[in-house]
Each structure stands twice: as structure tokens, then as C-alpha cells.
Fold this sequence. Notes:
By secondary structure, the protein is mostly beta strands. It is about 10% helix and about 30% strand.
Amino acid sequence: MKKYLLPETGNFYKANLHTHTNISDGVLPIEQVKADYKNHGYAVVAFTDHDIMIDHSYLADEDFLPLIGYEMEVNEEVAGIPWWELKTCHLCFSTLDPSNMKQVCF
């Protein structure tokens, strides 16, 4: 018997809840990131550049919802150990409300 995690019918949206632009360590500008995701069928994208939350709600249209977000990293600090060998934790935050843009990393 086939089991469904979601109902068999309804409105479903393809989403990416973590992506970067050239605002941090991504390659493409935000407008190109939006265009690329839309061309691949995405309706929702959380823009989670490192350590900065920017209101990208101007990118919204009838087929696309940009989520305002950012990624914060918490890194182990040990003198003499290269960064790639340290423990790290990355947390992503997002909001739908442009007036709720508290950035806990500042």
C-alpha cells in the first residue's frame, strides 16, 4: 500500500529554504538567482546570505515568494587550528514580515 506524506491532491510549491547570492559567498546577483530558480519551477526561495538580513520582498510576484532570511554561523575557535578543521554550526533564520528583521548576530 502506498503511503503519502502529503495529501494526494492540492496546491504544492517547490521551495528552497537556503540559498546564497553574491551578497555573501554566492556567485550570482539576487535577480539572477530568482530567475534561475523560477526557470527550474521554484515558487519559494529563502535568501539566506551570511550574517546579513536584507528585505528582498520587492522580488515577489504572483508566481514567486522570496523569504527574507540570513545564515548565522557559530564557529569553534582554537588557536593554531585551520578553520576547515574546526567545528561549526550554521543556523538559518527567515521571516515573512519585512518589519521583523531583528538580526541576532549584530
